[in-house]
Amino acid sequence: MAHHKSAFKRIRQTDVRTERNRARRSRIRTFVKKVELAVTEGDQAKANEALRVAQSELTRGVTKGVYKKNTASRKISRLNAQVKSLSA
User: Fold this and answer.
1) pLDDT-based confidence at residue 2 (cuts at 50, 70, 90)
2) What's the DSSP call for residue 1?
3) What is the DSSP letter of 88?
4) What are the C-alpha distances in Å from 64 to residues 49, 80, 82, 84?
5) CA-to-CA distance for 55 and 38, rounded, in angstroms?
6) What's the Cα-to-Cα distance from 56 to each of 11, 16, 25, 87, rounded to whole Å?
7) pLDDT (tens digit per residue) in 7-26
8) N- to C-terminal Cα distance for the chain?
9) Residues 50-76, buried b or exposed e (16+ Cβ, 10 A)?
């Protein structure tokens, strides 16, 4: 248990940031699932629009420190490949 005022503040800040990051990560996962659902349905237009939104959310997750840059890049690349496979 913390004994200093600054340590209590650090605990509070960590709790707030953890909740915020958990919400961001959940939001990003939702957008990724929307892309995957559109791909399984075979809807090209819907998949492209969902990919555009998911891509911006993933890059925003990087700037907010939820994901590392390469992780987001890998996820975007794989989603893009799935969407492109619809047109082929």
Assistant:
1) confident
2) -
3) -
4) 23, 22, 26, 28
5) 15
6) 31, 24, 13, 22
7) 999 999 999 999 999 999 99
8) 59
9) bbeebbebbeebeeeebbeeeebeebb
